[in-house]
Amino acid sequence: MHVLVTGGAGYIGAHTAVELLAAGHQVTIVDNLCNSHAEAIDRIGAISGTTPAFFRMDVRDTPALQAVLQGSGIDAVIHFAGLKAVGESVRLPLAYYDNNVAGSLSLLKAMDAAGVRTFVFSSSATVYGPDAPVPYREDMPLGTASNPYGNSKIMVERMLVDLCRADTRWRAAALRYFNPIGAHPSGLIGEDPQGIPNNLLPFVTQVAIGQREELAIFGGDYETPDGTCIRDYLHVVDLARGHLAALDALTADHDSPAGLRAWNLGTGRGTSVLEIVRTFEAVTGAHVPYRIAPRRDGDLPAFWADPSLAKQELQWRATHTLEDMLRDAWRWQSNNPDGYNSTTHSSH
Length: 348
Ligand code: NAD
Ligand code: WQD
Hints:
The protein is α/β, with parallel strands linked by helices. It is 39% helix and 16% strand. It folds into two domains: 2-182 and 234-265, 3-Layer(aba) Sandwich (Rossmann fold), CATH 3.40.50.720; 200-231 and 268-344, UDP-galactose 4-epimerase, domain 1, CATH 3.90.25.10. It has a seven-stranded parallel sheet, sandwiched between helices. Helix 1 runs parallel beside helix 2 and helix 5 (93-114) runs parallel beside helix 6 (148-166). The two termini are 33 Å apart. The structure holds nicotinamide-adenine-dinucleotide (NAD) and UDP-4-deoxy-4-formamido-beta-L-arabinopyranose. The site of UDP-4-deoxy-4-formamido-beta-L-arabinopyranose has 18 residues, from helix 7 and strand 8.
């Protein structure tokens, strides 16, 4: 297949491009580089032996997208492009609805016009809302998120339900990610946050390498075994492979069910923040000083996936261990102390 990957210079998109190329697919990337570097495209090429076609383009530019899609032989689109910082979305809701909702709408319109109607969307566990019981299952209703980022994901899922209902030629999937961490084992691509990281793992690795003094653990008095929050962390390479499995399921046969299909991509296992810190120290030998800080607004105490639907329908399951995830995150950080701005990129 020829797959258009929007946001393919970003963290999950780059790993997915690598897996697509490894499976023999052709890849074209569209990214406006608002949260990534063109260097990531070269690194995808270094790992894969083939550098994907790349267009620096905003997904809100419908005519430009249409020009990429039209007559290109592109069979399917995986849509990663969007903004993802929860706290920022509270301050800048319009930017989030514009990039994530209007951006997705623009892409779907361009696809429809070009006759490309197979679509995989980067959704999130956040769509279940704060009141859902754990583990999260796909047959639970969409909730209302406590922030614009989460609501933008819910809005796009609703848009896809309506689109698939109106036109049965569409084949679409919403992949609800839990907490992706880790990096490609080559150490060549990984998560490269700009400024102070919001997410746990980049913060941990930046503390371990000495770029930050200590980790603030947000809350030590939750009703969890060690008082810190529990999440379902999964290796980004497993997550990337979930996209190939979803594409296979959408395109396997013409009898595949119409309508938006949703799959959780998680391990089904919960890990606390303290367990992350301790396991990271054990597998890397690096030290991570931390202090218990006040709770972060909007954090849920504990959630994880029921991943059984993906196992049953996609024959997908996460195979990497927590140790693999943390070792690979550390390899990426130590080989690229300044992310893609680092000058050396030898692998261990
Ligand atoms: P990322 O920021 O590394 O990648 C997103 C990419 O999209 C970046 O390269 C950015 O430059 C690009 N982009 C953003 N807006 C764009 C636009 N308007 N036009 C073109 N390109 C644009 O983020 P990621 O972690 O790789 O996340 C990818 C997707 O997965 C996002 O939609 C995110 O919301 C979703 N997701 C991520 C997580 C996570 O924990 N990382 C969890 C659940 C869902
Ligand atoms: C994980 C745990 C923090 C940083 C968010 C989005 C979610 C998804 C993934 C996109 C929490 C704790 C963190 C730190 C800490 N993104 N933590 N100190 O909040 O589960 O999910 O990113 O869809 O939608 O909400 O991930 O990595 O921010 O936090 O103690 O400096 O680590 O409190 O318990 P989260 P995270």
